[in-house]
Amino acid sequence: MDSAIVLFAHGARDPEWSAPLVRLRTAIERAAPGLAVHLAYLEMQGPGLPEVLETLARAGARRISVVPVFWSRGGHVTKDLPPLLAQWQTRHPAVQVQVLPALSDLPGMDGFLAQAILGFAQPAQ
Amino acid sequence: MDSAIVLFAHGARDPEWSAPLVRLRTAIERAAPGLAVHLAYLEMQGPGLPEVLETLARAGARRISVVPVFWSRGGHVTKDLPPLLAQWQTRHPAVQVQVLPALSDLPGMDGFLAQAILGFAQPAQ
């Protein structure tokens, strides 16, 4: 295992909240068989991000993509995530960690959402 | 104006947090010219959802689609949103209000995200 993806989400008290993350992990694994995809949470549930990164590094991951599964680039992404990564990276300087954009900043998201929303809204025009 | 869409998001202290919502509103308006698209927030910034719904009803909206711009169907969508809508609806029983699925439950979202994420992650296979 050289490359890995970590879906990093907020976490919630309701365990059902994670179901879409599990679905997303499955979708990624189907699209890229053999790629390791893991879930990590900021709070309210585990495992946490440092724990998951540690496990991946020990398993031999050299390149980890962290996906902030947050709608927008708010405080959780800009303030909470960087120190978690920086602190972990000091112990594993050789592992390349890449942080992807937040969901709303992924290429094509606006157009995809507009069509998905209009498919439901079916406005009278 | 008969139909309207309300993008209902959490809200944040950082005003920049709203920028993707404004972009999404623009994308929907471009895809459906003439359709009214409004932003409403749960907390930390305004306007709130009841205020926006009130304005739309007074402007003649008969059919309003509320889009929960939240990654997953957590407490904000299942516990905070319904009473806001129910309380408002008692004053406007004739207005048809439809709540769309949360982002992760929109059709095609898993596949779209998987491709978008893999486009960045470019795993060694």
What's the helix and strand layout?
2 copies of one chain form a homodimer.
Chain A: E1 3-9, H1 19-31, E2 36-41, H2 49-58, E3 63-68, H3 75-91, E4 96-99, H4 109-121
Instruction: Tell me, rounded to a whole number, the average pLDDT of chain A.
Output: 93
Q: What is the overall shape of chain A? A: globular
Distance between the termini of chain A: 52 Å
CATH topology of chain A: Rossmann fold
Number of helical regions of chain A: 4
The CATH class of chain A is identified as Alpha Beta
Strand content of chain A: 15-25%
Q: How many domain regions of chain A?
A: 1
Rg value of chain A: 16 Å
Can you list the strand order of the major beta sheet of chain A?
Answer: 2-1-3-4
DSSP summary, beta strand count of chain A: 4
Chain pair sharing the greatest interface: A-B, 60 and 60 residues
Low-confidence stretches of chain A: none
Considering DSSP H and I runs of 4 or more, what fraction of the residues of chain A is helical?
A: 40-55%
CATH architecture assignment of chain A:
3-Layer(aba) Sandwich
N to C succession of SSEs of chain A: EHEHEHEH
